[in-house]
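TOKENISED FOLD:
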Amino acid sequence: MSISVLRTVDAWWVSFPGGARRIDTAASTTAELIADRAAVESAATGFGDLVDPSTLALISPVTAPCRVIAQMTNYVSHVKDSGMNPDKVPLTFFRKSSGSISGPNDDIVKPPHVALLDYEVEIGLVFGQTIPVGTHVDEATLADSIAALVVTNDVSARDVQLPKTQFYEAKSYPTFTPVGPALVLLEAGEWEKFSTLTLQLRVNGVTRQNSTVADMIYKPLQTLRELNRFQRVDAGDLLLTGTPGGTALTAPPKPIEIIGALLPPHVKWKAFFRRQASNPKYLRDGDIVEATVRSGDGSIDLGTQKTVVRHA
């Protein structure tokens, strides 16, 4: 059975439907918490005072520094929104700074020079052990490799990302990776339910993204095998697995795209950003963003993060 762990500045907590119980652990990092599984299970199965989770000031259950790795265009709906062919999209990665990690209720702070602020709800995989390059990973060892799941939001400055083709900068500003609320530790048999997870994101109560993992192109096992060809990971590292369609950014109609390809770059981007400036889906000051991931039967629930956009 999965265990939902919450984190505050001074403690880790196991979350129950009726409250939260403090974990008796000296762990200060996510890696140390994962290693202290006995303390987590003791809190989950034992006795002790429960507190109301709503009284806890939650912070990200994934601690920094760590590696933050992300997959590109990994959902059929997002690939189509981007004007590409899902059958021809390779499995590719980019990195984010772990300095971008923030809590599930922290503000998303838009830098003054960013105009096109976008959202991407994603399932985050939290590694449970060191996996050296070349390690064999299969279905039997997947549960040992991936210890937990979290809700993440891959916030993106599109007007930085696109003209500079600079993913790292565009997605690494402070608060651009809200994580949590829950670090959901899975048992081996629960991986069968991964395919039933549904991702949802709402802005000011209006649903923008709503999709199941069935829309995912490259599943975790295939992703880990590809990543393991060149990248070592350690316990506590975080892998974002892509977002479904419904982001603010979408590809222009084909005729406009063809015309744009014939223009000088500075002219093309000026025209593109002029059109995007009128797109009401980009995040604005005061917008409330809610991101949720849970299984179809509700037995795996990563919780809901609720963040507010603020201009710096």
Summary: The mean pLDDT is 92. The chain has one domain: 65-311. The chain has nine helices and 18 strands. The first helix runs from residue 30 to 35.
